[in-house]
Amino acid sequence: MRYWQLIAALVLAGSGIAKAVEFNTDILDSEDRENIDLSQFSQAGYIMPGHYSLTLKLNDRYLSEQEVIFREREQQGEPEVVVCLSKDQVELLGLRPEALALVTFDEDASCGDFSSLDGVTLRGDLSESELKVSIPQAWLEYRDPSWLPPSHWEEGVSGLLLDYNLNLSMTDQYRGNTNQNATVSGVAGANVGPWRLRADYQGNYAHSSGEAGRQDAFDWTRIYAYRALPELMAKLTMGEDYYSSNIFDAWRYTGAVLASDEQQLPPSLRGYAPEVSGIAKTNAKVIISQQGRVIYQTMVAAGPFRIQELNSAVNGQLDVRVEEEDGSLQEFQINTATVPYLTRPGQIRYKLAAGKPSDYQHHLNGPLFATGEMSWGISNAWSLYGGGILSEDYHSLALGVGRDLNALGTLSVDVTQAQANLTEQEKKRGRSYRLSYSKRFDEMDSEVTFAGYRFSERDYLSMSDFLSARENEGVFKNSKELYTVTASKSFPEQRISAYINWTHQTYWDTSASNQYSLSASKYLDIGSYHSISATLSAAQSEYNGRKENTFYLTASMPLGQGTLSYNGNFNGGSNSHSVSWYERLDEGDTYRLTAGESSDGGRVSSQFSGYYTRNGSMADVTASLSWSQEQYTSAGLSLNGGMTMTAEGAALHPSGSNGGTRMMITTEGVPDVPVGHNQVTNEQGVAVEPGYASYSLSSTSIDINRLPDNIEVEGSPVSEVILTEGAIGYRHFEILKGQKMLATLSREDGTPPPFGASVRNERQREVGMVGDAGVAWLSGINPGETLTLVWGSSGRCLTEVPDSSEQLEVALTCRAVQ
Known about the structure:
Layout: H1 3-15, E1 50-58, E2 61-75, E3 78-84, H2 87-91, H3 97-100, E4 104-105, E5 112-113, E6 121-125, E7 130-134, E8 153-156, E9 159-173, E10 178-192, E11 195-208, E12 214-229, E13 234-242, E14 252-260, E15 276-280, E16 284-290, E17 293-300, E18 303-307, E19 317-324, E20 329-335, E21 348-357, E22 369-377, E23 382-391, E24 394-404, E25 410-421, E26 427-441, E27 446-456, H4 463-471, E28 479-491, E29 496-507, E30 513-526, E31 529-543, E32 546-559, E33 562-571, E34 574-584, E35 590-600, E36 603-615, E37 619-628, E38 632-646, E39 649-654, E40 662-666, E41 674-675, E42 679-680, E43 686-689, E44 698-701, E45 711-714, E46 718-732, E47 734-737, E48 739-747, E49 758-760, E50 766-769, E51 775-781, E52 786-791, E53 795-800, E54 809-816
Parallel strand pairs: 1-7, 8-46, 40-46, 48-54
Antiparallel strand pairs: 1-2, 2-3, 4-5, 6-7, 9-10, 9-38, 10-11, 11-12, 12-13, 13-14, 14-21, 15-18, 16-17, 16-19, 19-20, 21-22, 22-23, 23-24, 24-25, 25-26, 26-27, 27-28, 28-29, 29-30, 30-31, 31-32, 32-33, 33-34, 34-35, 35-36, 36-37, 37-38, 38-39, 40-43, 41-42, 44-46, 45-47, 48-51, 49-50, 49-52, ...
């Protein structure tokens, strides 16, 4: 028989309705028509009764992998196989409550009946390992392209994780000391059901050949646990935390907080993360902390930098420290206050917390407090918000209103009154007033992301001021005025864009602090050279009476596979000029080589630096090397990665976000399977993709374009998922690894197995089908493997692949199974 005849037979089977079909084998040009088994094709889409691991696919959208039961029952006097979904599996489909009430179940709630819902169909597809579910949109809950309701969210699997950011550096001063430095920070954690247990840590080691000697420290800076409460669209956190608020300042405490979680809302209703910008004079390390806790650190190349990876939950005052390779240091502060959110009409968003202030030694060192805040959507344009803090010696009450001005932007005004009892004799009482504004000017291609003004009376103390005064015997920074502006502007016709970030803080009893950064970029074409860019950046920081101004000019031009650029840095009495070459390599690695000279007080010295970054499958690695004539030689190495362990396996991986959401993928022990964007499975067939967005629809997949020739994916290579915050998601892909071969199969009596018999490997996966005269095209075959041939209701025989078979064509004998 020719293979086109087999295909024709299958088409005939697929063209019928889900009824039994009796094949006329006379149309087949086969010498042994009686030795044919087409029973599995006698019904369109027929699947034998049993349990199957399938991926739910709802209206062309992938959901989770499930164990699906297929049962046989009588339908109009004829046997029919039906799909059975349990009550828990039906809830994953996201039916509206009124639709879910129409689905009936058997006694053990293992088989749902959808007959009362018009238009609902369920169809298994073993070739794709999918259960295709079609449900009219009228029966489903609200959803958008990147968000689904809580019934689709997954808590992931239980497991352990350790994320880290390790920075190593060594500097050899010219005719001076040799300094070695290492810093590490990250998150250790465990997931147990919906609970996320986390412990933040940070450590440092420094060694100098001079008098400073050796210094080292390691601290667990925060230990806490949290979980999502989808029914409330809220998050519960217990342990050590920082009170983060749109109304009040932040402070460290030990206790519990229940808060509405913006991440659980559709993307269009979520807030934004703060941004940190500045200029690095050399290859530098940027450390962002809040009240002593490192929340982010990274290495940046010389020049302007903008860090936009901070978590949207970060609020309040942040300390920024830029450690240059030449030993110099920049320090400044930014305030990340946001425009208080406008709430939808009739909705209330809230935050409730209680506990005691605590320090980094995990000691409670303040009075018991309780606090709460909320925002109420009065109408489409108006929101009322406010909150209060209540403790033994401190009371605070805030009230404000937000207004959507439509074409004019959004505006909010609030006032906070506080009373603090520092001692029995010293009591302070005052108010703080705040005005916040945000607007996108589309017609002008400009945006005021945030503009704010705050004035505090001399005797006004925030909660953090009050705690600082208690610890430092009445000494604290008494804030007076705070100005904050973040804005951008584009000039499309001139191909110019500009950006500014400015914060100005004054105090009643000490000097003011000031920080701004601005940049303007111009794009142009000169002759045959296109996409030439020039950027002028400026930054100023004034902190603790110290002021520093920096200007940076850069011009770049694409050449071949790389980019050639000029960089000029002007900082007070010193300046530098350099030329750089930047290139992205085939594997996604990047490097930069820079050569130039610097002058300081009339002294001129040559400089050279190199910067290399590799986004590996086990960690992200950055290496740097710098040399400055008669000043120093410096080398640095940064590793950013993590390790995740579950009952399904363990793997090293890059670190997307410390302690954040991730996906574990297993491929049945098959190594080197490419998954995601840049991952491959390890020797145990496990890979972890970090940096998954919480509560957003994400996909994980096998990269079939990078698959080795001896590996095939059974079923769909893509799976979609929505994970709760901090979850370790899990997906298992069925993989066939082995060579392909054309086999001629025969039984012990010399006759071929029945036409249409299924050939299965040791995992009972189908690797081929018997054709005419016992010929079968097999894939995923390994030397020494035992294969099983199955046909009809009881037909079965076994055969073995030769131990060292590398032939494309083999003859195999199949022995009967008693």
